[in-house]
Amino acid sequence: MSNKAYITTPIYYVNDVPHIGHAYTTIIADTMARYYRLIGRETFFLTGTDEHGQKIEEAAKSRGKTPQGYADEISGKFKALWDEFDISYDKFIRTTDAYHKEGVQYAFSVMFDKGDIYKGEYEGHYCVSCETFFTDTQLVDEGGCPDCGKPTRLVKEESYFFKLSKYQEPLLKWYNDDEKCVLPKGKKNEVISFVKQGLRDLSITRTSFDWGVKLPASMNDNKHVMYVWLDALLNYITALGYGKENENMHFWPATIQLVGKDILRFHAIYWPAFLMSLGLPLPQHVGAHGWWTRNGEKMSKSKGNVVNPKEVADAYGLENFRYFLLREVPFGQDGDFSQKALMDRINSDLGNELGNLLNRIIGMSGKYSNGVVDSKDVLKFYATELSNVNDILKNVETTLLELQTNRYLEDLWKALTIANQSITLHEPWVKMKEGKEEEAFALVALVSNILARVTLLLHPVMPKTTAKIAHALGFEITTASYEKLIVARTLLDTFTIEKVPPLFPRIEEELMAQPSLPSPEPVVIKTSKKESKIESIITIDQFFETSLKVGTIKEAEVVEGSDRLLKLQIDLGEEHTRQIIAGIREFYTPKELVNTQVCVVANLKPATIKGLLSQGMLLAAKDKEGMSLIRPEHPRKSGASIG
Ligand code: MSP
């Protein structure tokens, strides 16, 4: 095993503020980095922000900002959150940093000199939201992006291409030779079947916008900027000083590169192909995690249900949140965030099992032996219990290195269960009464040792909490104690327990408000269904209770599993677009709706249709022949009032 470790997170786009998905990746990576440091490896942990590309350029423009100013602002928010979350990164890279741009240009020239880059013309579809190229046959629902469903744009421009097809066989060989190169296995199989379908060369430059890294001066071609994914992926080596001397390149290849499942293809196909072209070794593990939903629903800004990690950490405690994220879902699978699930984990796993064990040790040792705990008789009386614990803990390292954080924690909790059950079973208070004091003392020492081992192994997940427990048990969390207690399985030296206030006070009710609806808060229409029928007479005031507005359809996509419904994102001149689920699929295709105007009932009570939030209604005329949307005769500003 190398004595170095290099852990990376994806670099986050600066078009969005940090949410639970970003926090999840970063917290897993932080846990792994802390683990490697604990076991004594020289560790480098990288995170940062991805700041170029069309998506960022457009996001900045729509807010009236320069791309750089906008990137500075949002990148700062990511960094501030990671600092507040005590994320132990060694470097925070920004793709607008000068050294990164130089490294990317250098890499481009190496790949070019190798003969892996050629000039041509790209014609196809581009999804700005995913920053991905697609062919005709890959699109869904008449022009929709197969990954996110949003409408794609037709692109035809001069472009440099990377010979990705040349690396198809070497990639397949890598997957075949290195069993754990992509984790988990199921995701690796998906990558393999994708590659087996055949790889096309990849367009790696764009000419239709500016916000990107220019080609190296040696190319003498100023029109092009690099494709944002080439620029972004190279961050993993430019951060180490690729192309420069005396820097941190000795950390390469990465030990673990964490990504979400949506960006695995870039990391398990393009990235290793680029590395092969550069003549660099491939990462040891690329690990893809699943996505978080909230209360069973996909999170999105328009639904207003995005989980804000800071809000959760403030309400429930940062380390409790970390534990929840890593314990709740098997790595690679999707997980659901709900306050109830979080509270259950805190009250049950952390409070009843971990916190309570420490309290029992404090209580018993205080009563029986003035707080002194001595391990000398543990093996004499409780060798079986200790060996059962050793059996459980001997495999946990492999589990964690395969990123199965939930199983890792489950195993640690199995050890805690042995400790708690031993107390119930052996009833040390009875032993004290029966004069078997040695056995009672040894039992307290047994469970203290189990807790100490779990505490060390839990440290990467809950650094501050475990430091407090370790302190109570008379040791500090260091690589030396890891070697002594975990590797050599030595028992604790005699110590006097330190009292600590309860670590996990019980949480009785939800501590955060439920997701708020986007403003303005919709007004509930008071007219009854009967009264609102055309035939009934209403007053002018009643009519004006309905807020009718002109809306511009920004995005349209079909609702999976419905023949009737389309999901629309509509600009009503408010801060965020509104999502409206409309039953017009038989009459309109998503493509023909985008950028057209409609009339919207804007103060309708929001409803959930097929599990999707709908915040308004479109006006349409309907008869036997069909349906036609009501639209302003001439374009008006989004949000213009009707009436
Ligand atoms: N900039 C690219 C990555 C470039 S890496 C060279 C990018 N950025 S992102 O900000 O859009 O996404 C970053 C990560 O957040 C991805 O790994 C993605 O999977 C993750 N998540 C975004 N939403 C998520 C959830 N709802 N749940 C879990 N993770 C999700 O992609």
Kindly describe this structure:
By secondary structure, this protein is an alpha/beta fold. Among the domains are: 328-496, Isoleucyl-tRNA Synthetase, Domain 1; 541-629, Nucleic acid-binding proteins (OB fold (Dihydrolipoamide Acetyltransferase, E2P), Beta Barrel), CATH 2.40.50.140. It has 21 helices and 28 strands. The strands form eight sheets. Strands 1, 2, 3, 4, 8, 12 and 13 form a seven-stranded parallel β-sheet that branches. β20 and β21 form a beta hairpin. α15 (405-426) runs antiparallel to α17. The chain is globular and about 95 Å long. Residues 516-536 have low confidence and may be disordered. Bound molecules: 5'-O-[(L-methionyl)-sulphamoyl]adenosine. 5'-O-[(L-methionyl)-sulphamoyl]adenosine is lined by residues 10-13, 21-22, 24-25, 50, 232-233, 235, 259-260, 262-263, 291-292, 299.
Number of helices: 21
What is the CATH C level class of the domain at 328-496, in words?
Mainly Alpha
Listed once per kind, the bound small molecules are: 5'-O-[(L-methionyl)-sulphamoyl]adenosine
Going by CATH, the architecture of the domain at 328-496 would be: Orthogonal Bundle
State the end-to-end distance: 73 Å
Shape: globular
Structural category is alpha/beta
- By CATH's scheme, which homologous superfamily of the domain at 328-496 applies? Isoleucyl-tRNA Synthetase, Domain 1
Please state the CA-atom Rg, rounded to the nearest Å.
Answer: 29 Å
Percent range for helical residues?
40-55%
CATH topology of the domain at 328-496: Isoleucyl-tRNA Synthetase, Domain 1
